[in-house]
Amino acid sequence: MRIVIQRVSSASVEIEGKVSAVIGHGLLILLGIEDEDTKDDVTWLCQKTAKLRIFDDNDGVMNLSITEVKGEILLVSQFTLHASTKKGNRPSYILAAKPEKALPLYEMFISCLSGETGTEVRTGVFGAMMEVALVNSGPVTILIDSKNKE
After folding, report:
1. Is residue 109 classed as helix, strand or coil in its secondary structure?
2. Residue 149, pLDDT score
3. Which residue of the set 6, 49, 55, 79 is catalytic?
4. Residue of 120, 149, 150, 144 whose CA lies nearest to 32
5. I need a labelling partner for 35 at 20 to 30 A (CA). Which of 12, 81, 97, 107 fits?
6. Catalytic site includes residue 80
7. Could you confirm whether 117 is annotated as catalytic?
8. Is 149 a member of any domain?
């Protein structure tokens, strides 16, 4: 399971010309699920995300979590995070989980993250063609992979 976390001043998702979700100060999280992912990946990644200290404290040091700054969260599913570009120029998505496997883990991640942060997690629509807009604050962008716990 991979996520790209972006600290944002604002972010939104639009589907078929209509705004589906909007947040202000907080996190935009792109979530990619692969076939090998399990509930353990969800739990580890969710807890890591909730405790990640990437917001500035009063001294301008990234020392506060999303919970401490009372920020908002927007989560967008993105199977392309598991693209393989090893062979040729056309990415392969063979590692990305099929919807029947990915959707329950996606929903579990939403529930877990909401529980860990006490914050409503706004979302796009799983599997939909979406347009995501954001103002990256910092910029701060972090990649976390549950299979590579650094």
Report:
1. helix
2. 81
3. 79
4. 144
5. 12
6. yes
7. no
8. no
